[in-house]
Amino acid sequence: MASKLFKCVILGAPGSGKGTISSRIVKNFNLEHISSGDKLRLNIKNNTELGIQAKKYISQGELVPDSIMVRFILNEIQKLNHRSWLLDGFPRTVAQAKELWGSHKLNLVINLNVPFEVIIERVKGRWLHLPSGRVYNIDFNAPKVPGKDDITGEPLVQREDDKPEVVMKRLQNYDKITKPMVDFYKEVGIFHDFKGNTSDEIWPKVLDCLKTNCPSETATAQSI
Ligand code: G5P
Ligand code: MG
Fold this sequence. Notes:
Blueprint: E1 7-12, H1 18-28, E2 32-35, H2 36-45, H3 49-58, H4 66-79, E3 85-88, H5 94-103, E4 108-113, H6 116-123, E5 126-129, E6 134-137, H7 164-178, H8 181-188, E7 191-195, H9 199-213
Parallel strand pairs: 1-3, 1-4, 2-3, 4-7
Antiparallel strand pairs: 5-6
Bound molecules: P1-(5'-adenosyl)-P5-(5'-guanosyl) pentaphosphate and magnesium ion.
């Protein structure tokens, strides 16, 4: 039973389109989407103990310590109760990747490879529906009504860590701390790199890769 589970991770720099591509993946495949950033932002909004701790790091563009993140995400995976999943934003350090691998052997790692100059431009226009994690962009996928979520009509917000100086810090940390994980997954042999300037260019290649690697029972009618 457990061997039929599909376990997948999406990697990429801040603003590379992990949330955007993940939402397309879950429309086409029966995978539970766990976005570490979305979950942390909800904890901050709800003023939980985790949220209070995480806010100190996130607002500065720093990573939340490994020990906190590993405990949090492994617990979120356990709550899925044997359903297939897609992790977005975790792991983010070699230490996190090794801890995850110790508990769960992944089937696939998707890496979004988008130039930094493209990313810096696009995060300026990002708007977010905090409760659901739905993400918009005034230049790319604008909401139907400006400032309102398409589904609920609730207000959209901008992320505190999308301020230009914090984005630069996040990109530097990505290069220094997160990118070395690529070598770890290349050695394991499950790493797939997708290069492009837009999510529309990258998406068909990700879809093909998932159709090849994902067991048929995980696909929804849309992807067949
Ligand atoms: P997050 O929330 O995981 P990041 O920095 O990894 O944050 P982010 O910013 O959420 O990643 P993304 O999901 O890769 O980016 O990108 P996205 O939101 O889909 O797209 C970015 C924008 O571009 C959107 O407005 C989208 O509409 C638009 N867009 C997409 N495609 C295109 C396109 O083709 N063209 C155009 N024009 N626009 C497009 O983590 C936040 C913080 O939480 C902590 C850290 O502090 C982190 O900085 N954290 C962790 N700390 C330690 N360990 C972990 N595992 C942690 N996870 C989170
Ligand atoms: Mg995201």
